[in-house]
Design brief:
single chain, two-stranded antiparallel ribbon
Length: 161
Amino acid sequence: MTTQAKTSRPLDTPQIPVQFKLAAAWTSFMFFYIYVDYLFLYKPGVVENILAGIVWEFEISETFVTTSIALLAIPILMIVLSMTLPARVNRATNIVAATLYIPFSIFNAVGESWTYFFGISIGLEVLLLAFILRSAWTWPRTSSTADAAATADRLRLQVGV
């Protein structure tokens, strides 16, 4: 009887902190980002071009791979930065990074013949970036009463009262 009573109650949806949402979204974005590149290797001719030293239209060089890792580093670092930066800096950093990555993601589809593959994958990447923008843009603000109470609590902890 207690089992039935427990299962008939509605499930609770706890409030998720913005930092967790942002880190999860950047992690999901990275999975798409990586798997799009990985699955692209199955396109006929891609591996042959890589073995010949060409990726898309670019010659594989130290500059190419350094640029590639720098472009990958931003969303990778956004996962940890979303969890660790102070709110004001976190919000701004997420807005800037997501805003820059939307055109970059769309650019990856330009001229590609696999329209469904790139349409779905890049469409999902852009949706995740839009979610990041929305989450960061609508970051909740604390009331002045809550700020004063939090400051007082911090001071009590520091003083040991």
